[in-house]
Amino acid sequence: MTDATSTPINQDEINTILWKACDTFRGTIDPSEYKNYILVMLFVKYISDVWKDRSDTLLAQYDGDQARVDRQMRYEPFVLPDKADYYTLYQQRNEPNIGELINIALEKIEDANKQKLENVFRNIDFNSESNLGRTKQRNDRLKNLLEDFNDDRLDMRPSRIGDLDVIGNAYEYLIGKFASGAGKKAGEFYTPPEVSLLLADLLDPQPGDRICDPACGSGSLLIKCAQRVGEANYSVWGQEANGATWALCMMNMFLHGVSVSTQNIRWTDTLKDPRLTTNANTLERFNVVVANPPFSLDKWGAKDAPNDPFNRFHRGVPPKSKGDYAFISHMIETTFIPPSANGRVGVIVPHGVLFRGGAEGKIRQKLIEENLLDTVIGLPENLFYGTGIPAAILIFKRNKPDTSVLFIDASRDYEQGTTQNYLRREHHEAIMDAYHAREFVDKYAYVADHDEIAENDYNLNIPRYVDTFEPEPPVDMAAVNAEISDLRGKLADVEARMQAYLKELGLDE
C-alpha cells in the first residue's frame, strides 16, 4: 500500500469501494450471509491499520527500540497478535488453505482480546464450503476479497482519518445496503437509522444511564442512544439470539467507539434464556430499554412462560404464535422502579399490538391500568426492510405525572424512496414537538385519559383517537346536471355526424 496520508478522506468514496468489494459474493451467496465476510474483513483491516499506525508512531518515538514498542502495545484497546493482521493474510492470499488461515488469524485475535471479542468470530467460517463454495471457488473468492481491501483509499490509519467516524459510518452504510437486499431476513439485524434516532430522542438517555436493547440486532439502536448521551458516562447492554448478528453488533460497537464487552452484549435468546441477570431469579435493571424486536414472533416460548423464574409474564402469557407482548413484558420488567431511577421503554411493534383481543387485550389493559403506557406513535408504511406494513412506537414510563396517553398519527409523514420510505428531518421534528407539547393537534395528536381508553375497551387503534377524516368537498348538483346535459348534447352531435359519414359510404343499413 502506498502512503495516502495526503489524500483527503472521502466517506462516499470509501462506501463505494466497500460496496464494490461485495461483487466477490454478489449473485452467488445470499446477502444475509455474505455481509458477515465483508464486515469481518473491514473490522480486521481497521484494527490492523490502527495497530500499524500506533506501532510506527511509537517506533519513531522510542528511536527504533522494538522491545519497548512491543511492551507498550500491550496496552492498546485491541491487541493484534503476530501474523494475525490483514497484511499477513494479504500476503498469503494465494495459499491453497487461505480460508483456514483467515480462521486461524481470527481465533488468535479473539484469544488476545477475550473480554471484548471472545467467540465473536466463531460464528463466521471463512472455510465454509456450504457458504463459500468448494476449494477452488472459495479460494478465488477470498483472494479477491483480500485484494479488494488492499486499496490505498481504504487506508484507515487514525493519523489519516483523524477524529472522523468514517469507519463506523462505512460499517452502518454496508449494513443498510445488505438489509436492502436481504428481504425478510433484514429485520433480524437492521433498524433504519432515522427510526433509531427517533427512538433515542424520545427516550432521551442521560449521563449515568444504563441503556439496554434485548433484541439488539447489529446494535444501531444502542449506538444512537450512546451518541445521544455523548461523551458523558453511560453503559450499554444487549442480548441477541443470532450468533452472526451478535458478532456484527460487537464489531459495530467498537467501530463507533462505544465501549462494551461480551458481558454487556450477550449472545442468547432474551425470552427463553435471558443472561443479563443478577442471580437465578433477578433480572438486571436499566434506565432506558429500547428495541425493535421481531414482529409477532412464533414459538417464542409460551409453553414455559407460566413458570418463568423472573415472573415477567404476571400480567398474562401472550399467544404462542405472537411474541410481541412477551418482549414488551420483558422490557418493562427490566426497567428501574422509582424512586431508585426513572425507567422508560421504547419499542417498535406491528399495529396488531394496539387492538388485538384475547390474552393480548388483557395484558394491554393491565399495562394501561398500571399507568405505564405513555405514548402511542403511528409510523408510515414501508419504513422497515423485510415488511411493508406500518408499525408503531410505544413508550412506557415508570414515573408518569398523570394518567394521560398521547396518540400521534405520523403515518402520512414520510419521503418516498426507491424501495423504502423514510423519515425526513421535518417529520422527526414534528413528532418530537407533539411528544413534548402533549396537546391536541388537529388530525395529528390527541391526549386521552384512562376513562376514554376504557370506553374504547382498551383498544389503542390510533384512528379511534386521532381523527384524520378529510371530508369530500361539497358537490354542486346544478353544475353537475348542466355538465351532464352538455355532454349529452355533444354525444348527440357526434352520433349525427357519424350517421352522415356512414350514409355517404353506403353503410347506414
Which descriptors would you attach to this protein?
single chain; 509 residues; 9-stranded mixed β-sheet; 19 helices; 43% helix; 11% strand; globular
In order across it, which strands form the biggest sheet? 3-2-1-6-7-9-8-10-13
Count structural domains: 3
Largest sheet: 9 strands, mixed
Q: How many strands appear in the DSSP assignment?
A: 13
CATH class of the largest domain: Alpha Beta
- The overall pLDDT, averaged over residues, is 88
The CATH homologous superfamily of the largest domain corresponds to: Vaccinia Virus protein VP39
The coarse overall form would be globular
What is Rg?
29 Å
What is the percentage of strand-forming residues?
5-15%
N/C terminus separation: 89 Å
Number of helical segments with 4 or more residues: 19
At CATH level 2, the architecture of the largest domain is 3-Layer(aba) Sandwich
Give the helix level as a range of percent: 40-55%
Uncertain runs = 1-6
CATH topology of the largest domain: Rossmann fold
Structural class: alpha/beta
Structure overview:
The protein is of the alpha/beta class. The chain folds into three domains: 11-181, Ferritin; 185-464, 3-Layer(aba) Sandwich (Rossmann fold), CATH 3.40.50; 475-509. It has 19 helices and 13 strands. The protein has helices spanning 11-21, 31-61, 66-73, 86-91, 98-112, 114-117, 129-132, 135-149, 158-161, 166-181, 193-203, 220-229, 243-255, 324-333, 352-355, 358-369, 425-437, 450-455, 477-504; strands spanning 210-213, 235-240, 265-267, 277-279, 282-283, 288-291, 344-350, 373-378, 391-397, 405-409, 415-416, 421-422, 445-448. The strands form three sheets. A nine-stranded mixed sheet has the order 3-2-1-6-7-9-8-10-13, with helices on both faces. A two-stranded antiparallel ribbon has the order 4-5. Strands 11-12 form a two-stranded antiparallel sheet. Strand 6 (288-291), helix 14 (324-333) and strand 7 form a beta-alpha-beta unit. Residues 1-6 have low confidence and may be disordered.
